[in-house]
Amino acid sequence: MTQFTEEVLVIIKGIPYGRVMSYGRVAKLAGNTRGARQVVRILHSMSEKYNLPWHRIINSKGKISITDKRNAAIQRELLISEGIKVSEDGYIDISTYGI
DNA sequence: GTGGTGACGGGCC
DNA sequence: AGGCCCGCCACCA
């Protein structure tokens, strides 16, 4: 467990209800501007056991970036259930819901 | 050691 | 917006 990883966990858990943040943004706040891919890894491996709001993480274009159709649909549902508007192809208005 | 692989980002059309 | 390209970096076979 590196320092960066801990920071990422704290930041992600700190994203308020109804807001979203991009991978790169999280990485930057955690202290590594180029750590977006590492954030992805952390989400993949720890989102379940650490109970992370992984659905509040989207890419810099404001779109759900998950390749797995199944999980992408789940993320969309979770966001909508938080009052966030998500278009059918997975776009979120980042200027409204972004941090 | 080594090469392929992403739930990515940014720059440039 | 969206496509293409390249840089990045931990992970895994």
Architecture overview:
The protein has a two-stranded parallel ribbon. It is mainly α and 99 residues long. The chain is globular, with a radius of gyration of 13 Å. α2 packs across α3. The protein has a single domain, classed as Arc Repressor Mutant, subunit A, CATH 1.10.10. It contains 5 helices and 2 strands. It binds a DNA duplex (13 and 13 nucleotides) through α2, α3, β2 and α4.
List keywords for this structure.
99 residues, Arc Repressor Mutant, subunit A, 5 helices, globular, DNA-binding
Helix content: 40-55%
Global morphology? globular
Number of domains: 1
Specify the CATH class: Mainly Alpha
Q: Evaluate the radius of gyration.
A: 13 Å
Helices and strands in order, then pairings?
Blueprint: H1 3-13, E1 21-22, H2 23-29, H3 36-46, E2 57-58, H4 69-81, H5 94-97
Parallel strand pairs: 1-2
Helix pairs in contact: 2-3
The structure holds a DNA duplex (13 and 13 nucleotides).
Would you summarize the structure shown here?
It is built from 5 helices and 2 strands; from the N terminus they run H-E-H-H-E-H-H. With 99 residues, the chain is mostly helical.
